[in-house]
Design goal:
This protein is an alpha/beta fold. It contains 7 helices and 9 strands. A hairpin with a 2-residue loop joins strand 5 and strand 6.
Length: 187
């Protein structure tokens, strides 16, 4: 069976950058396509960017137990469909989930065999600097993200693998090493 890798950490920690580098180094990995109730953005295709569902469809699928994890964020629902993971894994494809800590906990309950990785900042101040530096959030939004990050950082001990994203290349190498070791153990 192929592995499922759950990668989480606070907003602004660099998960997306690290995951892109991970895919460059280990091309056999695939990113899980999440489901959402938010409308497609221009150019997004159903089944590629997301599985776009109506709120009613999403809620029915939650009731039916179709999600490995799900959450509401900014008024929209997001989740990982069990069928999405099972089809890829049964085909021997290792899958990466980039999800929030809440979702990672849900996956841990339903799929304890999934490999859980936490991406941490070197310090809260570094995280604040990165969030401000992105220039995408108002000061109030940065403050809310930092408050959420504080709670998420407290969850760090729950994860067997923690990668501190201080120097990008070092963090990439550490993440790649963990994933390669887990893939080798599954072979």
């Amino acid at each position: 069976m192929a592995k499922v890798f759950v990668i989480t950490g606070p907003s602004g920690v660099g998960k997306g950058t690290l995951i892109r580098a991970l895919f460059d180094r280990i091309p056999a990995l695939e990113l899980s396509v999440s489901a959402t109730t938010r409308p497609p953005r221009p150019g997004e295709q159903n089944g590629v960017a997301y599985h776009f569902l109506s709120r009613e469809q999403f809620e029915q699928r939650v009731d039916d137990g179709d999600f490995v994890e799900h959450a509401e964020y900014s008024g929209n629902h997001y989740g990982t469909l069990r069928s999405e993971l099972e089809s890829r894994v049964s085909e021997g494809v290792p899958v990466v989930l980039e999800i929030e800590v809440q979702g990672a906990r849900q996956v841990r309950e339903k799929m304890p065999e999934a490999v859980q990785l936490f991406i941490a900042p070197p310090s809260r101040e570094t995280l604040r600097t990165r969030l401000v530096g992105r220039g995408t959030d108002t000061p109030e939004q940065v403050l809310r993200r930092l408050e959420t990050a504080d709670a998420e950082l407290e969850a760090q001990p729950e994860f067997p693998h923690v990668v501190v994203n201080d120097r990008l290349e070092d963090a990439i190498e550490e993440l790649v090493a963990v994933v390669q070791a887990e893939l080798a153990s599954a072979a």
